[in-house]
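Re-run with default settings, no changes from the original entry. Doing this only to confirm the output is reproducible before filing.
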Amino acid sequence: DGIGNSILVGGNAGIVMDLTGSGQFVLRDFAIIPSAGTPSTVGILMARSTTTASGYTAGSLLENLFIDLKTIPAANGGNGTVAIYNNGGEQNQFRNLWLVADNPIVFTSQNVFSISSAFVPTGTTNLAEANNILGGMFQSVGAGAAITVQGHVDATTIQDLVVMKSGGSTAPYGIKILADSITPTQPIRNFRATHIFYEAFDRASSTTAPVRGFWVSGYIGQGTGPAILLAATNAGIVGGDINLSYSAGAPTEPLIGDGGSATAGVAMSLIRLYTGQTISCAASPGLANHFLSEAISPTITFSGYGDGAQIMQAPGGAQLGSK
């Protein structure tokens, strides 16, 4: 047992383990590293096949794995290396992983990086994907987020883990959520990223998609720009529960922001505002949100509060205002 006892050296400039069309498998206790000459650019490919009986790539367990790939920015269509690429796989569990790559792990329903099997036809259409659970440490060494979620990917649970960047990584956000490329208004539903330590990341997540059910908690550093960025016209949060604290001192940047561009905004969410945290969504609406604030007069800016907004001061519990 132990990841150091079994090591796969990837030297094919492509995929080390191609599991397209495979399901209900268990992978544990080994490492994948790149060769010096022609390093592999994908550690593990999990994808639906259009021909095999087990094409759903579901019900599998990946546990106690170490995958360390080099940064190769030009790889995979200019997206860089990927430790684990999950295209349409669902109901899988990823436990105690240490993934190091330009993109440590990617969940996509539409093959967003266009990575396909060389052996069987790979599904590329709109593949609804749900119920993946992951934990471990995800380390970006390039421009990609530590965790990327794209398309019709629902009920993803990310919990009790570390996302970090090193080696000159330029990734601004630990978790990146990308909209469905066919129907950008298609919501991602029930996304949970809780008890996360954002090591060296000073931004938690960005989204170009509408998210319905958005549970986020963790610990981030100080930086520039919103900790959570609504980054496109359709981007928004409905039914959120947001609890992000900072490494030191009062932040000078917003907790949630829209970058000055109109988005779908934030609605029906419980948002904790620690000392110094603000909301900066002047171009986007806020509707029926509940704010718990350490400060007596938190700065909350939306294009309109909407009916039902409520601000409470903690720990005293005084109601500061409502609309």
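The mean pLDDT is 90. Helices lie at 75-78.
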